[in-house]
Amino acid sequence: MARIAWVEDQDATGSLADVYAEIRRTSSSGRVADILRTMSHRPDFLQAINAASQLHFSDGALSEAQHEMIASYVSALNRCHY
Predict the structure, then answer these.
(1) Other C-beta atoms within 10 Å of 57: how many?
(2) Are residues 39 and 46 in contact, defined by beta-carbon separation less than 8 angstroms?
(3) CA 24 to chain centre
(4) C-alpha to C-alpha distances, 41 to 11, 60, 64, 75, 77, nearest whole angstrom
(5) pLDDT tens-digit profile of 48-61?
(6) For residues 14 and 31, what is the distance between their CA atoms, to the nearest angstrom?
């Protein structure tokens, strides 16, 4: 069980519902990742973090798979399931 309370999709209203919809629209999985949900009580911050994440994981020197591999390794080092 998560230690940080977040807002589920069905409970999101207003700007949070808009941000969730945008994240689902642009996500390869079509869903809002739990790590992003932890910021659901601050839709403005969630939107900014999502934009930064999209920039970080866009094509560049590393492939998306390489980005994910690095993120997974760092999460494992930090004992974080995200």
Answers:
(1) 15
(2) yes
(3) 10
(4) 12, 32, 28, 23, 27
(5) 999 998 887 777 78
(6) 18
- Residue 3 pLDDT: 81
pTM score, whole prediction:
0.73
Tokens of 14: 């207003």
Q: What is the dihedral of CA 55, 58, 63, 66, to 10 degrees?
A: 40
Instruction: Judge contact between 24 and 30, C-beta under 8 A.
Output: yes
For the segment 2-21, the average pLDDT, to the nearest whole number, is: 93
C-alpha to C-alpha distance for 37 and 46, rounded to whole angstroms: 8
Q: Above pLDDT 90, what percent of the chain?
A: 56
Question: What is the maximal distance between C-alpha atoms in the chain?
Answer: 39
